[in-house]
Specification:
The protein is mainly beta. The chain is 13% helix and 48% strand. Strands 16-17-18-20-21-22-23-24 form an eight-stranded antiparallel β-barrel. Strands 1-4-3-7-6-5-2 form a seven-stranded mixed β-sheet. It has a five-stranded mixed β-sheet with strand order 9-15-14-11-12, with no helix packed on it.
Length: 406
């Protein structure tokens, strides 16, 4: 009865970990570029950008597959090969739907990324229009991590405009939700004039009572203004552009954009530094005893390659008379190398016959899933009490099992 009760309790704990794993997922807060670069050298020109595309095409295709966007890959490559790819800046607070990066030689994808660095970072802008939808990609020049920033309808433009039809205004306002003291970027650099050239952009920002908050005219490209929001409230941003003939843009160009400024600065959530772990396996002692091994715990990652794993569990006796049902508390340090891991640590093993302080060594291989998602590994483990090293042939315990990470 005691064994059944312990098995049931551990099984319920594993089910609770499965239920809680989905709730632990949140936006990934990106603080620094270049930690896991997709492409090594910094990309400083369009020519180097196209060189990166040629060299990394195979790896890039793998990234699009993992991002479930393989249908956009050929269009992205074709558009990225154009000569007029331009640079933009991605500001703190801007969101990316996904980002491709490399960890070692493995191509990976992280979703729901928010840039929380202190400064904007420069990136190449690639727009892909397909089936009436515009996909906006940004590629940081520092690391080449291809990222999907925005998906929306293709802006309506006047087909075959006459030379004197006037300028066509396009504007992007980011972010549209921020805290007091944050910065809004008003980007009208994609505005065009088929019959001439854009010579100025007029920006007007009003508050919720339609009172002027800021009014400014930009008289030289790239027609980008950054505005610090000093007061909470709702604001409307309106932009118009003027060409070299004095014509000003009109509807449907540059609709008004609402910006909401909150009173308090949000506390940025740190990315989850670890994972919940559950072990299920078998352990053998020569004296003899056969155990069912069940453990749950948390693996805290200090770096991508080093973690500290704490676990508690039970070891009901399946067969043998030299020991009774036991429980354990283990702490091991683990080194991660691609899909392999190696660990060593100490553990407390307690039963009605003896309490022991163990030395633990183990190793394992992750055969299913990625490290940043649910995965399963097989592991082997050996453990022995420090005061029984002279009796290893009788009292050392060896085992193997499956390790689940959430």
């Amino acid at each position: 009865m005691k064994m059944r009760s312990m098995v049931g309790m551990c099984f319920l704990a594993v089910l609770m970990l499965f239920a809680l794993s989905d709730q632990a997922r949140a936006e990934f807060q990106l603080k620094q570029l270049g930690v896991n670069p997709f492409y090594g050298p910094e990309i400083k020109s369009n020519e180097q950008f196209r060189q990166m595309m040629d060299e990394m095409k195979v790896e890039m295709k793998k990234g699009f597959e993992k991002a479930e966007a393989i249908g956009l890959f050929d269009d992205f490559v074709a558009q990225a090969g154009r000569t007029d790819i331009r640079m933009i800046e991605v500001n703190p607070g801007e969101k990316l739907q996904w980002m491709i990066f490399r960890k070692g030689k493995t191509v990976k994808v992280v979703k729901d990324v928010v840039w929380v660095g202190k400064e904007p970072f420069p990136a190449f802008l690639v727009q892909v229009d397909k089936a009436g939808v515009r996909y906006v990609f940004v590629v940081p020049s520092k690391c080449g991590n291809v990222s999907l920033a925005f998906v929306g309808p293709v802006p309506a433009v006047v087909a075959q405009p006459a030379p004197d039809a006037g300028p066509l205004c396009q504007v992007r306002v980011t972010p549209q939700n921020l805290a007091v003291g944050g910065e809004v970027t008003i980007d009208a650099s994609q505005s065009t004039d088929p019959g001439g050239a854009i010579v100025s952009a007029q920006i007007q920002v009003t508050d919720g009572g339609n009172n002027p908050f800021m009014k400014k005219t930009l008289d030289k490209p790239p027609f980008i203004e950054r505005l610090t929001m000093s007061k909470a409230g709702e604001y409307m941003v309106r932009v118009a552009v003027t060409d070299n003939k004095g014509n000003e843009s009109s509807a449907p160009g540059c609709p008004a954009t609402k910006v909401i400024v909150t009173a308090d600065k949000p506390i940025a959530a740190e990315p989850n530094p670890g994972k919940f772990v559950a072990d299920l396996g078998y352990m053998y002692q020569a004296d003899p005893a056969h155990y069912l091994l069940m453990r749950i715990g948390y693996d805290y990652y200090f770096t991508d390659t080093f973690s500290l794993l704490g676990m508690v569990g039970a070891a009901p006796v399946l067969d043998g008379e030299d020991d009774t049902d036991s429980f354990m508390v283990d702490l091991t340090a683990n080194l991660h190398q691609q899909r392999m891991f190696y660990g060593a640590g100490v553990g407390f093993w307690s039963s009605s016959t003896d309490d022991r302080l163990d030395l633990i060594v183990n190793a394992g291989y992750r055969f299913y899933g990625e490290v940043d998602k649910f995965n399963v590994a097989v592991f082997v483990e050996g453990r022995a009490a420090f005061d029984q090293f002279d009796e290893l042939s009788d009292y050392a315990r060896v085992g193997a099992g499956l390790r689940f990470q959430f």
